[in-house]
């Protein structure tokens, strides 16, 4: 009886997952390969013509190849932000885990606050303007690091808790201290959770729409998600080109998720168990 219930629950979950994820994805692909007249219907009708190459070239060439510039900007922001997240998140988590006390408890409260409280756009703009970093890629990178640092620290700290302190003491006896202790002894052991942080943060930052929209305005600073506005207007929305744009900007995160899904789950599970 339990096996039947379990099989039924799995079947229901599979159907729900299909409806929630695969049906919208199928609609997106079908609309992306239609012409503008047929794409207006936004239905599952089979395309009467297949202007795939035309739609692809129109998206690439729109507004003086803004999508290509957006890919470059998004790649720079993602790579730089994730690199800083891994380094600072792991270092901060190691210090907080190894040195408990009032300061550590205050830091834990701030980390949890960073996970719960949503980012405030207007104060962030004021701060970036005061630093002279508003509308610049370095300012956007620092903002992304600040917004995602709490999550990275939480994962790193849960994993570091499983590393015995005796390993630190042995390394210190051998002459390691400070940065050498962390980078030569501790950091190599964080490979599973580091992969998880890299993959999850890369997808989140690459797909970020709101923060670049407000903190990085201007065509020269456009990111891939902001290019969705290219084909959307109050009176005329080119649905075929809009969905083709969505397909193109969905490919990199989708590839990461498909090929590294097991590593993401393994890193999170290891951190949860060892924490």
TrEMBL record:
The keyword Membrane applies. It is a multi-pass membrane protein. It is found in: Cell membrane. Residues 71-260 form the ABC transmembrane type-1 domain. GO terms for cellular component: plasma membrane. The chain crosses the membrane at residues 12-33, 76-97, 109-128, 140-160, 181-206, 239-260. This is ABC transporter. It comes from [Actinomadura] parvosata subsp. kistnae.
